[in-house]
Amino acid sequence: MTDAASASLRPDLALVPRPDSVTPLPGRFILDHHTGLRAGPGAEAAADLLRELLTPTTGLPLAPDAGGRISLLLTSGQQALGAEGYVLTVRPDSVLLSAAGPDGLLRGIQTLRQLLPPEALAAGGARPRTPASGWSLPCVRITDRPRFAWRGAMLDVARYFQPVSYVRRFVDLLALHKLNVLHLHLTDDQGWRMPVAAYPRLTEIGGRRAESEGDGVPHEGAYTRAELAGLVAYAARRGVSVVPEIEMPGHARAALAAYPELGNLPGVRLEPWTRWGVCENVFGVHDAVLDFCRGVLDEVADVFPGPYVHLGGDECPRVEWERSPAARDRITAEGLAGPGALHGWFLGAAAEHLAKLGRRPLGWTGTGTELPTAFTAMAWLDTEHGRAAALRGHDVIMAPYRSTYLDYPQSADPGEPRGQDGVLDLRGAYDNEPAPAHWEPEAARRVLGTQAQLWTEYARTPAELEYLAFPRLCALADTAWSAHRDWPDYLRRQGHHQTRLDALGVRGRSLPPHPERNAPCAPRPEPEPTSAARP
Ligand code: TNX
Q1: Please, what are the domains in the chain?
Q2: Of the residues 1, 313, 470, 482, which has the maximum number of CB atoms within 10 A of its CB?
Q3: Model confidence over 214-243: pLDDT tens digits?
Q4: Ligand 1 centre from 156 Cα, in Å?
């Protein structure tokens, strides 16, 4: 048994995600009113965040000038552990966290939080009471680094809008699990949530729908620019980057409701869609539509500073293009093979603009053939389709629906809330393998990482979202961070980790005593073939 596996038998060393190496040391470190928190040059931001997280929950000031028995240091000595690696050594008289870069310190402080008693995680509620004996940490040496650089979660705020206060809490929960990407699905047929100054009707009209699947209840919501900018900064402090998604050329009905001239049906007025599924109304391919997309992307790039912008690209029926004279003209002018090639042409043109803005395009891919190769591909169909995309030269983020779509129920138990047809149980989420060992090295090298998808057709409220997310998001975080696969070991750690989630008020599905294996989700149809016009 490795050190980390034997350590996971001890509740206080059972961490999620699993660190690379955990060596228990004798004794405990006590955090009390005399404990100081010191930061070396460049480590101040991580130390400030650690203090901000711990002071309200432990009642301890952790002052920088108290002498300091907790030290955070940036050292070139840890360069071999990469940008997010760190070494954490807890001894009876000192805690030392060192890393080569600020992100390593941000991962390390989450490990430190998990080593404390679960009550030390919980903010709010009753006033913190420092136990008379202080807060105690087990002595240990942890050397850690992630397997994958992209460890994400997508939150669909288009189907059901979530207030920014909840999105911030969601970021906190991502950071606790060392997930580093929040992918915000901001637009879809049923709602447009990102304000665009040049096109105010996007949120005024596209941000509200009359009802959902006949429930008679209107739904609306949109962020302000200041809220989004604040969210980006909040996430960045925690080492989480926010990737915005603006869907095109399909999943665009909310935008078409706001600006009908961007569609394919002159004179037809549409409302934001009130049903779930794949909508036939898509963007037109005339010049005004590209101007619109460029204008929107300019503002997106102003608000979201990260390198990636997600352009959607999934599920784009071509029936409207087949009937549209403007589409015929575009096919002729660009020398395209037919309406199926307009999809790749459209995304290629939008990506060209992103490149001018210094950003990189991301897109959904089913079969691995739909996207121009400049795109990083988010592979949602099967793992093997992700491999095909990698072999075509895409960087790939693995998002196969059978193991990463958290909108499936977590068990076949009839008491589970309604979701997509099928089941994704905890084991299924844990079995997600982003780069299987039998893959060609050139395919495996292309895999940047993996992410969970929280589509919200069946989750309206934060409580419903959180139930779907937990504990499966923890399993995904474990597989994204650690290369070590050991289901019983994970389950044991997760069992202890549940006490932390409880302390934080996360009401996920409780761990069944003998987690069952359910039949996996039913296969989804492959999308219609489209071709990427500009390889
Ligand atoms: C497919 S696969 C979608 C979403 C739905 C989801 C429901 C893909 C990128 N798009 O529009 O919300 O299934 O599971």
Answers
A1: 3-144 (3.30.379.10), 150-486 (3.20.20.80)
A2: 313
A3: 999 999 999 999 999 999 999 999 999 999
A4: 10
